[in-house]
Write a structure and sequence with these properties.
heterodimer, A: mainly alpha, B: alpha/beta, 6-stranded mixed sheet, two-stranded antiparallel sheet, 10 helices, elongated
């Protein structure tokens, strides 16, 4: 039987409710730390929030806010429309006003693809940070922190690549693959991307966690914790 | 509440079923009957309900046809969760089993509901309209209809409509998951030439869906309703009605800005 990697973790952390409130907790603690003790760079590690500049944080923030995975979580666990699917846990009520995603700020969700474009544009910076951490001292040096930055870059790429808007724009909007140029390759890409898309919710959560973990790790180093090991030095 | 004893007392373990009875609108004090049914190996909830009909209470009304998960008739709420009675094994449920009719639809009698409203929505969906160059004989490849075919698995059990909080709790003009799936099966067909995004946005009320994925969770045919039908349809609406760059592109190209052809 194939190993289900999810069994390696406590079941609860994949529960939507836990996931949503962990987002909120991480965001509050993370931003508090960001404002209280800014650490933009330490020992060649560029903090993910400062990559390339902290001024653009609202863009990935809006990318997450309008993400279909996060929408499910906050519509369920913040607005309770509905809280769950069974009678015992629905929590929605006909007495409460509901307009879905049609009115007010919720219409911003229709612009998710523009925040996706911003997200894609930012991805190379995270790989640059990894590269920078390898060579900043003048020699090639692979340290644990570099692997943290690499994991962060890879998970952000996987989350961005599994986006529903990306899925639509890269193949979902084609109804007849044999009618368009390179249809076979585009369908193959669409199918692989669809596989990744099935894991979008988990990737949304995991990629947020790695950003804050990378941030915490760099803060830990700056605070003098002996966390960093050099693995390879050439 | 009445409790019916089995006509032939059985020494084997039994299961206890609690079934909502009555006709028309639910009252504030709904009436449940409780039955004891002998447990058998591999038994599904529908078997237990059939046992009640044939041995304990022939007046119990249910709708069913195939008993094989193909006809979509025996939809009900089993312990509060919309499910097909014929695909829910009794050994998957601990303790008493409560069966209620689908609450999103008017009740006729006991577990039978009136799903006529669905056919009215179905009639409003712009039908399959062949592309201008489709010819008299349609020629297309299997690979091109794969996506559309996923939605053809729908057995119209209407569990997705029942679980949808927009349909169930709010009187919104939303067509519901089953009908978004239907529209998606037409939109994604390689020979279809119609763009239904204006219909989906306005008459279909697609914006009411807040993609909380209950429909996808409970679909007995495992159609990935939200990810494969609703979200792609939402993205198609964005293409035509919200994306400023695509709007400018269509203007420059000289085509219709929100026309009904693809």
């Amino acid at each position: 039987m194939a190993l289900n990697w999810k069994t390696l973790f406590p079941y609860e952390i994949f529960e939507p409710n836990w996931r949503f409130w962990s987002f909120v907790g991480i965001l509050v603690v993370g931003f508090w730390a960001l404002l209280s003790f800014p650490v933009a760079e330490y020992a060649g590690y560029i903090d993910p929030f400062y990559s390339p500049t902290i001024l653009i944080v609202p863009l990935p923030g809006l990318f997450r806010l309008t993400c279909y995975a996060y929408r499910k979580d906050y519509h369920r666990h913040l607005f309770k429309h509905p809280l769950g699917c069974s009678n015992a846990e629905r929590g929605d009520s006909s007495k409460r006003h509901y307009t879905g995603e049609r009115n007010g700020l919720f219409q911003l969700e229709n612009l998710h693809r523009y925040f996706l474009y911003a997200g894609i544009a930012l991805l190379p910076f995270f790989y640059y940070d990894f590269y920078h951490s390898l060579v900043f001292s003048g020699v090639f040096e692979l340290r644990v922190g570099s692997l943290v930055l690499l994991a962060n870059a890879l998970l952000l790429t996987a989350w961005t690549g599994s986006c529903h808007a990306f899925r639509h724009l890269t193949g979902g909007n084609i109804d007849c693959y044999s009618c368009v140029a390179a249809g076979g390759a585009r369908k193959a890409f669409y199918e692989r991307q669809s596989w990744l898309n099935r894991h979008h919710e988990t990737l949304a959560w995991a990629s947020l966690l790695t950003i804050f973990f990378a941030d915490l790790y760099i803060r830990g180093l700056a605070a003098g914790l002996p966390l960093d090991l050099t693995l390879v030095r050439l | 509440m009445e409790t019916h004893a089995s006509a032939q007392p059985d020494q084997r373990k039994t299961i206890r079923l609690r079934i909502l009875r009555g006709t028309g609108e639910r009252t504030s004090s709904p009436h449940y009957d409780t039955f004891e049914v002998p447990r058998e190996e591999g038994m599904v909830v529908l078997n237990a309900v059939h046992y009640i009909q044939s041995h304990l209470d022939p007046s119990l009304s249910i709708r069913w046809n195939c008993k094989a998960g193909r006809c979509g008739s025996c939809s009900a709420e089993i312990n509060g969760r919309p499910q097909l009675m014929c695909k829910t094994r009794v050994d998957s449920i601990e303790g008493e089993i409560t069966i209620e009719p689908m609450q999103a639809f008017p009740r006729l009698k006991d577990l039978v509901t009136d799903v006529t409203a669905n056919w009215k929505v179905a009639a409003t969906i712009p039908p399959f309209t062949p592309k201008a160059n489709a010819g008299d004989i349609y020629t297309f490849y299997q690979a091109d209809v794969d996506r559309s075919r996923e939605f053809r698995r729908c057995i119209e059990c209407f569990l997705c409509m029942d679980v949808c909080h927009v349909i169930r709790e709010h009187e919104a003009d939303y067509m519901g998951p089953r009908w978004v799936v239907k529209a998606a099966s037409l939109d994604m067909h390689p020979m279809d030439g119609l763009n239904r995004s204006k219909f989906m946005k306005d008459a279909g009320g697609l914006g009411y869906c807040n993609i909380t994925k209950c429909c996808q969770e409970i679909c007995p045919e495992h159609i990935v309703i939200t990810d494969d039908a609703i979200i792609p349809e939402k993205e198609r609406v964005v293409d035509r009605h919200y994306d400023p760059i695509l709007w400018v592109y269509r203007r420059l190209k000289g085509g219709a800005t929100a026309g009904e052809t693809k």
